[in-house]
Design goal:
The chain is α/β, with parallel strands linked by helices. It is built from 10 helices and 7 strands. It has one domain: 3-Layer(aba) Sandwich (Rossmann fold), CATH 3.40.50. Helix 1 crosses helix 10, helix 4 runs parallel beside helix 5 and helix 6 crosses helix 8. Bound molecules: BIS(adenosine)-5'-pentaphosphate (AP5). The site of BIS(adenosine)-5'-pentaphosphate (AP5) has 33 residues, from helix 1, helix 2, helix 3, helix 6 and strand 6. One of its GO terms (biological process) is AMP salvage. Monomer. It is found in: Cytoplasm.
């Protein structure tokens, strides 16, 4: 059986990054995440300006910049989980020309919970590991002391990111539903419960392939 080609969609804070780690560990596929790639190249000069200028406002970085990141990553991938891409119809149509997908999973989470998760998220700059001020802080004091908040996790920017999601990304749900690829998972459960449901959905898709 070939390695799965998985797309995770869902609003900011739905748990795409958290669940992608499980997918990578379990299936050994590539994690293709435009968010991480852009954060690592925030100050790269492009003909549209620097990614930072869009990200700090919660806006989408122009399509040609992200399309280029994804197409390069797909070339090397034997199976993948796409996280954070596509984010609008034009990216979805571009992706359609580049590769087939085995399954698209929507992680469904209510808006209040998303705001709590994102504004409370803290990142270890040394490992990239995510924590949360209320329910998931590291035991190691040195790690606790170096945690940082992402620039776009402040309350104002989170509100803008959620609006950008509703306007640009939500239409993709219907796009993938029409293609018979979409599975919805309740992302409001604990991370382990979400992973349980997600793994079953991936196994079902592999069995059908
Ligand atoms: P990106 O990095 O992709 O951010 P995002 O989609 O907004 O996603 P997040 O990383 O914030 O959330 P997540 O769903 O991965 O949640 P996580 O697992 O971390 O994009 C950032 C920016 O880059 C964009 O705004 C845009 O400017 C630009 N960009 C990126 N891709 C682009 C594209 N294709 N086109 C144009 N521009 C693009 O979880 C969040 C928190 O919740 C964590 O603290 C975690 O511990 C906690 N948590 C996770 N699961 C659970 C659970 N089940 N229960 C309780 N807590 C949980």
């Amino acid at each position: 059986m070939s390695n799965p080609r998985i797309l995770l969609i869902g609003p900011p804070g739905a748990g795409k990054g958290t669940q992608s780690k499980h997918i990578v560990e379990t299936y050994g596929v590539e994690h293709i995440t435009t968010g991480d790639a852009l954060r690592a190249n925030k100050d790269m000069e492009t003909e549209f300006g620097k990614p930072r200028e869009f990200m700090e406002k919660g806006e989408l970085v122009p399509d040609p910049v992200v399309n280029e990141i994804v197409v390069a990553a797909l070339e090397d991938a034997d199976g993948f989980v796409l996280d954070g891409y596509p984010r609008n119809m034009s990216q979805a149509e571009y992706l359609d020309e580049q590769t087939d997908l085995d399954i698209v999973v929507l992680l469904d989470v209510g808006r209040d919970e998303l705001v709590t998760r994102l504004t409370g998220r803290r990142v270890d700059p040394e490992t990239g590991e995510n924590y949360h001020v209320e329910y998931d802080m590291p035991d190691d004091e040195a790690v606790r002391d170096r945690l940082e908040q992402r620039d776009d996790d402040t309350e104002d920017v989170v509100t803008d990111r959620l609006d950008v999601y509703s306007e640009n990304t939500e239409p993709l749900v219907e796009f993938y539903e029409d293609r018979g690829l979409l599975t919805r998972i309740d992302g409001d459960q604990t991370p382990d419960e979400v992973w349980h449901d997600l793994r079953l959905a991936i196994e079902d898709a592999q069995a059908d392939a």
